[in-house]
Amino acid sequence: MKLSKRIPESLIYEKETERILAEDDSREIQKYFQMFYRRHIREGQYTKKPEEMAKIYQIANVLYDVIKALVHSSIIDDKTKRIAKDIEEKREQHKHYTILPLDAAGVKSAIMEFPDVVYEDTPKIIVSMVSAE
Fold it and tell me: Average pLDDT, stretch 44-68?
């Protein structure tokens, strides 16, 4: 006995996506990127936690990568390019840091062998710079 996993036609509903911000796809994605910047970065930079801002900058960076992949560089408007430059500059301020305890005595932790582990002045902790990319 063979069971069919076919979806009934009555449950299938397709709807054409409507543009909300602009009249074509390339402008629509750029307008969304600009709106995302305004709502989440410019308005949230003083009210959100650093961890939240680090994630928001990652998302903004991915959005701009999508724009670069889908939209020809001659069509990307100046405002979008300025926002992307601003995001790239500020993104460095929101890198994620993890503070790791050192072992008091004995065997060195495996994490201590990584080249990106940086010793601070305090002998009791180390700071590991974790890249979010």
Answer: 89
